[in-house]
Amino acid sequence: MKAMKLILLFAAAVTMTSQVDAQKFGYINSAALLEENPKIKEANSNLETLQKQLQSKGQKMLEEYQLEYQQLQQKYERGEIAPKDLAAEEAKLQEKQQEILNFEQDIQKQLQEKQELLYKPILDKVKEAINEVAAEEGYAYIFDTSPGIGVILYMDESADVTSLVKAKMAEKGL
What we know:
About 75% of the residues lie in helices and about 5% in strands. By secondary structure, the protein is mainly alpha-helical.
């Protein structure tokens, strides 16, 4: 009985080992792959343009606020404004200041939404290309070695599937 258990345990271990040996692993550097991609460069350019437009608008809002603040300060120093009116004008300036702060937060939100909108179709096609390469080449796993993403202590250069994914992306017009 004990011998039978040992034989079954040994058979299970051999089966598991052969299954692990049969799996094929690959890796890709998605950061390098995307950095070279013209669609990503175009998306980055669009994001940069939007960012400059929004920052320009924010800068104009800030300049208007500063001008109004200086004018109010000059009126106060010359004694041209009553204390009651000064309080009302200060309240208006505080509202403008809050609008500027809200706009700065909105800038980040708009840029993030635009980035997601521009990148999602590209990243979906990259994922599709990776999946197709994995299926065609028989990879069980493909890891990402991009800095900050993957932690791989050793990798065989022959397992790099970046060029295969790049070729698949080119087939898809990416």
